[in-house]
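Need a sequence for this fold. Nothing fancy.
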């Protein structure tokens, strides 16, 4: 690990000024950044601690939205009464991720910024990784592909986003509130993470000099019909091969609102909008769900090591929607 300067600012504005230094990085819980530093993947010269700036609050806003501060711990989010009542899908996704010890430290903002767990990225013994070493190539294209993307990848990178929380946020249409030297702005969660394209080293649309302030969740009428399904190689402490966040509202016997987001299959949380559109206005039956889900892999691109996801994904969607909608 490289030597670094530690800075403890007293305000958000001073934190943003400190981040403007070359080679500076924000730290909250450190559950991802410290691993990357120990692995010689990240080499910040200055660490800017954002704890103690009032960014850990979870509060209900007057307009009915819920605001989750970027420094709020995952365990605090999962235990918060308003989150549990209004956004049970988010609670399920958080609890499905990592261990209790990690959830006690990991923050909402850090979860948004999690970097991929692609083996070729996290192990510097592999020189070819465009995300870690731009222009070097992507070893996964001809290597181990079990964990990798079937949607949204490019010939530069096929890594996936590892976060469970991000998948739930995509289904809940969250907004990410950020601040930089030019002031505040809000980013829809669907625009926050970016596809690799020709610049796989850039994971998000967050500017280098911006700090995440909060995650804002709109009122949720799908709270009574939601489920997070995570399929992985072992029952705990493993990243998703495929995950599905499903939330819906049934009115007069038909689906009036439904959101389905997918994890483990793309470089960002992936909305299954075509499946959603097929189910809107229909009675929720096993047959209707299976028919809608089977086309989800249209346009996907699999590799020898992850082609099983094209078979697994429609079944996972069908299962998650059936559980969310209490379809027997």
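Here you go.
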């Amino acid at each position: 690990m490289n030597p670094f300067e530690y800075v403890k600012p007293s305000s958000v504005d001073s934190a943003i000024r400190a981040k403007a230094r070359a080679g500076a990085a924000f730290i909250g819980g450190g559950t991802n950044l410290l691993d990357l530093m120990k692995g010689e993947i990240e080499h910040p010269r200055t660490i800017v601690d954002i704890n103690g700036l009032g960014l850990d609050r979870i509060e209900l806003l007057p307009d009915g939205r819920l605001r989750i501060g970027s420094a709020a711990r995952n365990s605090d989010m999962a235990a918060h009464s308003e989150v549990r009542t209004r956004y049970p899908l988010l609670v399920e996704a958080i609890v499905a991720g990592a261990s209790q010890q990690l959830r006690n430290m990991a923050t909402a903002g850090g979860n948004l910024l999690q970097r991929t767990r692609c083996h070729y990225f996290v192990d510097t013994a592999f020189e070819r990784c465009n995300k870690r070493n731009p222009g070097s190539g992507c070893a996964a294209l001809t290597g181990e592909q079990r964990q990798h993307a079937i949607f949204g990848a490019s010939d530069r990178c096929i890594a996936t986003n590892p976060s469970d929380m991000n998948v739930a946020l995509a289904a809940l249409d969250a907004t990410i509130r950020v601040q930089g030297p030019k002031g505040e702005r809000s980013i829809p969660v669907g625009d926050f993470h970016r596809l690799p394209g020709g610049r796989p080293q850039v994971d998000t649309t967050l500017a280098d000099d911006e700090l995440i302030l909060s995650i804002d969740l709109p009122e949720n009428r799908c709270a009574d019909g939601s489920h997070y399904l995570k399929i992985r190689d072992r029952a705990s402490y493993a990243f998703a091969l495929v995950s599905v966040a499903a939330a819906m509202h049934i009115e007069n016997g038909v689906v009036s609102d439904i959101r389905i987001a997918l994890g483990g299959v793309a470089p960002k949380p992936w909305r299954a909008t075509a499946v959603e559109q097929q189910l809107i206005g229909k009675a929720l039956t096993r047959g209707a769900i299976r028919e809608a889900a089977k086309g989800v892999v249209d346009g996907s691109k699999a590799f020898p090591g992850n082609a099983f996801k094209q078979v697994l994904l429609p079944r996972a969607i069908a299962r998650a929607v059936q559980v969310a909608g209490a379809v027997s």
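For context: The radius of gyration is 20 Å.
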